[in-house]
Amino acid sequence: MSAVIDLVGLTLLPLWRWRLVAEQLRAGQAPPALLEQHCDDWTCMPLSKAACPGVDVLRSRAAAAVDRATRQHIELVAWSDPRYPAALSAIIDPPPVLWVRGSLSAFDRPSVAIVGSRSGSPYALAAAERLAADLAARGLVVTSGLARGVDSAAHRGALSVGGHTLAVLGCGVDVVYPREHVALAGEIVGTGAMLSELVPGTPPQAQFFPRRNRIISGLSRAIVVIEAGDRSGSLITARCALEQGREVLAVPGNILNGRNRGGHALLRDGAKIVETADDIVEELGLPVLGAREASGVAGGSKKTDGGCTPNTDPVLACLIPGESCDLDTIAERSGLSAARLLTRLFELEVGGAVGRVGGGRFVRFDRSC
Predict the structure, then answer these.
(1) CA 155 to CA 170: how far, in whole Å?
(2) What is the distance between the alpha carbons of residues 199 and 62, in angstroms, rounded to a whole number?
(3) Residue 287's pLDDT is what?
């Protein structure tokens, strides 16, 4: 538990230190030593806006956050936990911990993010809801940010077919923002999950929302942008997606009102155009299902062997049974892009050929596929 307390303590450091902390954790540095090092560095900075409260105070605050989460039935998933989303652990700066309300099983399915304008037009909201419903019916998880407009339409679309959806927050998971989405948040928790890297009780602040966008894209195989202006926050998510090796797609919009200039800029730069959910699943290399097959997936798909043949499958061929590998190593050995690799690893995991271990690593099981 002490290591978990130190991980939480690292998230209580100033925001500008978070990326360095994540990089150091990925490099294998121990949380207790890291927390003490950063507190020492913070104390030694003469121009710091606020004095460091000290490592003992941070640990005390971290322990209080864990206690609060326990009382509110909020799950804490540390970066070293095998339940931590594999896709998210592969980004440059994964959150040291995730606070989760809802079902962790939603992390076990491939995800597509749908993001867009907070003041979306009726066309944008209808497109988001329709695409989300069709993707959820195919067994995919729909990820978004619980914001007004396109985000909430995407969540509602997934829920309308009994699908799974993830909401990534720019506040604590026990603080619903905006407040009019309290009922929607309750529905999301029923079949999917709300999650945040911020300790419970953290109020929404402008500085948190750009950072949460990297989590939305990091959890997802692809990002679909619907109606984004020139300065839309959705473009930040798209930029994060490109940096993370994810697929970026966009829905075309009305050229007369200028509401989708950002989305059209993405299309000019090479983003794939999206008209139906089939465009998205094809880009991910997943099978395009008919309506009957899709409804079957939404209701709970059977485990298959993932089509794995150790001698021919590029992922299995580069894994030694019993030896764990991180995603960067598997990508280098297999030659697959991040989006293709994550999709294939999910298929192999469902088929029982590979399993996840702590710190975003995978291991191949020494048995017949």
Answers:
(1) 16
(2) 8
(3) 60
pLDDT in tens, 196-230: 999 999 999 999 999 999 999 999 999 999 998 77
**Rounded to an integer, what distance in angstroms lies between the CA atom of residue 34 and that of residue 25?**
8
Residues with Cβ within 8 Å of 103's Cβ and at least 6 positions away in sequence, in order, are: 164, 191, 192, 193
Angle at the Cα of 336 (from 273 to 322), degrees rounded to 5? 140
Taken in order of first residue, the domains within the chain and their CATH numbers are 2-71 (no CATH), 104-296 (3.40.50.450), 314-364 (1.10.10.10)
Give the angle 48-54-58 at the CA atoms, nearest 5°: 105
Residue 168 forms beta bridges with which residues? 195
Question: Quick one: tokens of 343?
Answer: 């999709």
**What is the rounded distance in angstroms from the CA atom of residue 36 to the CA atom of residue 33?**
5
- Name the amino acid, one letter, at 10: L
Q: 152-182 b/e with 16+ CB inside 10 Å = b?
A: bbbbbbbbebebbbbbbbbbbbbbbbeeebe
